[in-house]
Amino acid sequence: MANIRLAPVLRSYAGGSKQVSAQGSTLAEVLNNLYQNHPSLKEQIQPEQDLSRFVNVYINDQDVRYLQGLQTAVEANDTITLLPAMAGGR
């Protein structure tokens, strides 16, 4: 199972958990398994077919946008980090 680290702003959608686990051989499969256990995360991470452009997704600290996106291979001991983009300023 892959370990999924959730940014503080996403934890309330996963019962307050800082980290959860999910199964799958690709990022798409892992996320689908994650949504089965925590359905409210889907709207935050993947409201459409593709990933939200406001959420950065990393597998072992590599941005999946520079890999194969949702088709990026995931190994059992990989760490996936979900980080919503933050905006600020004037």
TrEMBL record:
Note one Pfam family from the annotation. Answer: ThiS
Report the SUPFAM superfamilies cross-referenced here. Answer: MoaD/ThiS
Protein known as: Molybdopterin synthase sulfur carrier subunit
